[in-house]
Structures are given as structure tokens and as C-alpha cells.
Amino acid sequence: GESTMSHLTQMLGLTVHNFVSAATGLAMAFALVRGFSRAESPTIGNFWVDLTRSTLYVLLPLSIIVALALVALGVPQTLQGSIEATTLEGAKQTLAIGPVASQEAIKELGTNGGGFFNANSAHPFESPNALSNMLEIWALLVIPFATAFAFGRAVFDYRQGRAIAITMMIVLVAGVSVAYWAEAGGNPLLIEIGVDPSPGNMEGKEVRFGPAMSALFATATTGTSTGAVNSMHDSFMPLGGLVPLFNMLMGSIAPGGVGAGLYGFLVLAIIAVFIAGLMVGRTPEYLGKKIETREMKLAMLAVLIYPLSVLAFTGVSVMLQTGLASLNNAGPHGLSEILYAFASATDNNGSAFAGLTGNTPWYNTTLGVAMLLGRFAFVIPVLAIAGAFAAKKKGAASVGTFPTHGPLFIGLLLGVIVVLYLLQYFPALALGPIVEHFALLAGKTF
Fold first, then answer.
1. Residue 18 in contact with residue 107, Cβ under 8 Å?
2. For residues 327 and 349, what is the distance between their CA atoms, to the nearest angstrom?
3. Above 80 in pLDDT, residue 43?
4. Region 282-288 average pLDDT
5. pTM for this structure?
6. Residues in a beta bridge with 382
7. Where along the chain do its domains lie?
8. Chain-wide mean pLDDT for the chain?
9. Closest to 192 (Cα-Cα) out of 446, 442, 436
10. Distance CA 430, CA 308 (A)
11. Cβ atoms of 277 and 400 closer than 8 Å
12. Is 399 a residue whose pLDDT tops 80?
């Protein structure tokens, strides 16, 4: 935060890693894309070349544009450490400032999430108004969606990228709709005692944003593995908090982090095509490449990494006193806080249900391991899939080839997402936010 890090640390330490992490995600994504576009190739590209190109041609130009736009909207960009302000009561107050706009730009564009200020995008110096809020949401989403269309161009079939992008958008819009519906309705316990429900649930939200912009930002930041926040997710209604939680449990695939969203979605596409092949009784193929035993084993290994990390660590934490001692809320909301913490760490998101005290030896250790599993254990089978596909021959499409660019494929892909992740997480969600929602309707809160 602003009181912990020096300007030099922010600029040379954190900002550099913000660029490198995003460029690494793009490099991993296009390694998998080359697996589909190349035929009988022993390689899938050069990591250092991809890292350099991603930084110089994508991240830096966009960051400069977004940073200048944020400055125009009132975000500070200075090497000055602080300024003195006079409050309405006449008292003096010291306000921290610094190179905020440049940090904010790559924080959002690189789907990193770590803000200059501890309050993140809820701080008026990070996002002063509704227009800056919309610009930051655009910055969150632009590269992940663009990579889907870049995928279509790389495989010489724009329809493939369009199908992936449409599926991402459907999942994202569904999440925003549920979150807004939950937050706009307000708290039923407050409505019972005569509180006006028209503003919606304003607890933990900035007045300049309200429930609508808060729900949109929360869905976008967890749908892209960013972790930036403009409201307190822990203060959302149970079903409102379920949306960002479920986004992370899915691996933030709608549209996902920079690069990570694309390769995560392509793994699901492989599974969907395999299921389609089983249903019609022919060898499944995706973009002319046969999906065989090895690729399916690797794809299933990849999608099992997240539930293995999240559910295992959550289960152990609720059984140990050292895990329960950090809770400030009991019952289903306490379980949701622990589940959210490990989902956020595994997904490399960083947002939190802040009722959990995470700065303890137990959570520092287990959350750190969860971060490593989510980042490295997932990408290893993805790169193995890329290498396996690159070495295969590319077959020509025939009459019996399952089309992977139309509404049927989009529907099948959505079905795979719903069935796969509900089977993995529904029991945990039923014990957490879902039962909390029904308890709230019955007049009990946690």
C-alpha cells in the first residue's frame, strides 16, 4: 500500500513484475495456439521472443494510453510523496500520492490487481469517478477478449476465435446479471425494519459507484483473475458474493487473465470436442488435430488442479484450530471466507473476503503453496498439450467433422463449463453462500 512501499519499489519492483507476469501469460497462451496452428513441428516457439513481443508491442503501448487517460480523469501521476489538505472542519490532513496512473494502467491491463493504495480502486485517487471506473473495467477485459480473436487469426479461421469470445461473454454477462440482481435488491433484514431498499445493498460500496458499477467491477475483476476491487466483496449479499467466488473457482475463464483465460478456455474446448466425439462415435478432432488419450489425460489433469488445491486446503483449514482462529465470522459465511481465500490464491487473483485474517503462519504458508499450484501446476499440462498437438499431422475437415465455430459448439462448451464446475464445487457452495442466502431470508445473519 501507499504507506508500506516507496515510490522506487512501486516503479522498479511491482510495476516490472506486473508487465512480466502478463507477458508470461501471453507467451503461454500462444504456445498452445501454435500447437493447433503448426503441423509436425518439434517446437512451439521461443518463450523469450514471446515475452519481449508481448511487452513491447501490446502491454507498453496500451499502458501509456490508459495511464494518460487516467491522468486526464484526475488520477495523480507524480514523484511527490504527499500533499497537505484542509478538511471541511478546518483540520490538516496528509494525503499520500505518487506515480498512481502508471501503476494503475498496467495493474488493470495486465490483470494483476495490486493497487498503489491499500483501498485499491475504491480509493478516489485510483478511480475518481464513474468514467475512470468504466475505463478500468475496459482495461481489465480488452486483452483477454482480444486474445480470443487473435487465436482465430492464428489458426486462419476467425470463426473459431469468435465462438470462444462469445462463450466468454455469455458467462461474464450471466455473472454480472446475478451479482447486480442480488445487490440491487438490498438486505431483507434492513428492509424489514423500514430501511429504504431503493439504493440496494450499499454496505462496503462507494457512493460514486453504487451496486451496479460495483457488481460489474467485481465480476470483471474475478472473471479476469485481476483482484482489483472497488468495493468490499465480503459485504456483498450471499448470492452477490457467490458470483466472484464462482468466477475464481472456474479458474477465471470468462474472459480470464491475460493469456491464462485463453489457454484455460482451450482446455475446456478440448474436453467439449472429446465429449462430442464420444456422442457421435468418431475420433474427436479440434482444428484438424486428433484428440487422443494423452491429450485428454493432460486436459483432465489441468482442470483438476484448481479443485484439488482449493477444496483440499479449505477442508484442512476448517478441521484445524489454527485455521479457524483467523475467522471473524461464524457459520456459512466463515466457510465462504476460507473458500474465497484459497480460490483467490489458487487463481492468482488476490481479492479477499476480508473477514479472514490471512497474515498468520498457517495461511501465509498454505496460500503461498496454493498460488504456486494455480500458476505452475496448471500451465505444465497445458504446455505438454501444446507440444503434443504441434507434433501431430493436421487432417482435412470432412462432412462428419464436428463444427467448432457455431451455436452448437458454444452450447456444448457452456454445458461442459456448467456441469464440470458444478460437480466439483456445488457441495462446498451449498454449505457456504447458498445456505447463507436461505438463512438470510429466514432472518438470520452471520
1. yes
2. 20
3. yes
4. 90
5. 0.94
6. none
7. 7-441
8. 94
9. 442
10. 18
11. no
12. no
